[in-house]
Amino acid sequence: MTTSKYYISLFTVLLYTVFNLNAQQEIKLMNPSFEDPSMDVKEDKPLCCKAPRGWYACGGADLNTPDAQPGNFEVTLPATDGGYYLGMVTRDNDTWEGISQRLKTPLTGGNCYSFSLKASHSADLVSDSRRTGRPAKYDKPVKIRIWAGNGYCQKLQLLDESPVINHTYWKQYNFRFEPIRSYGHITIEVFYKTPAPIPYNGNILIDDASTIKQVPCAEEPEPDIVDIEQPESKEPVNVSPSQPKVEPKPKEKDPIVSTPKPREDPSTYTPPPSEILDLERQNLVEGQVIRIEDLNFKADSTNISKDAYPVLNEIYIFLRSNSDVSIEIGGHTNNRCQTEFCDDLSEKRAKSVADYLIKKGIRSRRLLFRGYGKRNPVATNATATGRKRNQRVEIKILNLDG
């Protein structure tokens, strides 16, 4: 082979390689703007209850499909891209809607991806209640969850989810995918507020989905643990995993300590609506576990930051107004430490939450705390995002009647 032919061949191989690498870095969705709906000619609006071209509707035979919008069920918001968009609902009978698509190029395990879409919420959507059969408003805010699988509507890994969306204008939401293996399908669904989801009528509107772009898996600063010696707590740990549950005495009001606006009669106190956690008494059952969002600790620290005060104060207000309720506070870590160290750190973090509530005035016998260490992960420990999710504090409802 001559030198010129050699370099031409080498250039061709390099060009082919670069082209394929670039092709792998972007996965284009079919009909990302949810256009081309079937039209109701008489009313000059898109037909409801039909998945848009390129998308497969998820749900059983008793479920309607997502709806082309605007124009159906009192939804009038103009599209942010093109002429149409998609509306999905959750229902009061514990059903919800979703759409799925087969990807042209699979997501690959070990790679990282970015994705975005526009979302909004309708305060006016009206449809029949699945429980009563009568017209009802589907106006409660919900969230978006994105799943990966290897078949339509298959949910093998939760890739990411949005916060609860309650604004009535378009806003872009960015997602990050870190698949633990290869997946050929993606599912976008609407879901209730969590933790402790309670079925209700809600809705979400989505438009202008982006391509799925491969991005560097840059390590985030480690939010949690390195295996070093921890300072001892000044107070002894009074509850361990092996200790039995202590039953609280019924109907005894906790003292009110250091409240900004103390009430003259705590028995008549009506708590404000829970805004961060779903801590409404009627929605809870014994044994229910609720993850405390927005409660993070610095690496190797058991100190509670001021950013966590709002969510801890919601727990305090709930306990103060429900004096027959007792809870377990459970600490969890990721796997970046030895078992003994993880157990000790997670228990001390759970204790710091209990101490905060005790100082606010909650009786200590209503609060058990326990360190689970790294035993119960809720996400993969192979990525920084997953490790951060595993590093958490949860509360468990032990008693609702004393």
Quick structural summary:
This protein has 402 residues and is α+β, with helices and mostly antiparallel strands. It has helices at residues 3-25, 309-321, 339-360, 384-390, and strands at 26-27, 39-40, 45-46, 56-58, 67-69, 85-90, 98-107, 112-120, 126-128, 135-137, 143-149, 157-161, 171-177, 183-191, 202-207, 212-215, 289-291, 326-332, 367-371, 392-399.
Features:
402 residues; alpha+beta; Jelly Rolls; 60s Ribosomal Protein L30, Chain: A; 2 domains; seven-stranded antiparallel β-sheet; 4 helices
Sequence-ordered SSE layout with sheet pairings:
Blueprint lengths: L2 H23 E2 L11 E2 L4 E2 L9 E3 L8 E3 L15 E6 L7 E10 L4 E9 L5 E3 L6 E3 L5 E7 L7 E5 L9 E7 L5 E9 L10 E6 L4 E4 L73 E3 L17 H13 L4 E7 L6 H22 L6 E5 L12 H7 L1 E8 L3
Parallel strand pairs: 18-19
Antiparallel strand pairs: 1-16, 2-3, 4-7, 5-6, 6-15, 7-14, 8-13, 8-15, 8-16, 9-10, 11-12, 11-14, 17-20, 18-20
Task: Give an overview in words.
With 402 residues, the chain is α+β, with helices and mostly antiparallel strands. It folds into 2 domains: 25-215, Jelly Rolls, CATH 2.60.120; 266-399, 2-Layer Sandwich (60s Ribosomal Protein L30, Chain: A), CATH 3.30.1330. 16% of the residues lie in helices and 26% in strands. The protein has 4 helices and 20 strands. It has helices spanning 3-25, 309-321, 339-360, 384-390; strands spanning 26-27, 39-40, 45-46, 56-58, 67-69, 85-90, 98-107, 112-120, 126-128, 135-137, 143-149, 157-161, 171-177, 183-191, 202-207, 212-215, 289-291, 326-332, 367-371, 392-399. Strands 1, 5, 6, 8, 13, 15 and 16 form a 7-stranded antiparallel sheet that branches. A 5-stranded antiparallel sheet has the order 4-7-14-11-12, with no helix packed on it. It has a 4-stranded mixed sheet with strand order 17-20-18-19. A hairpin with a 6-residue loop joins strand 9 (126-128) and strand 10 (135-137).
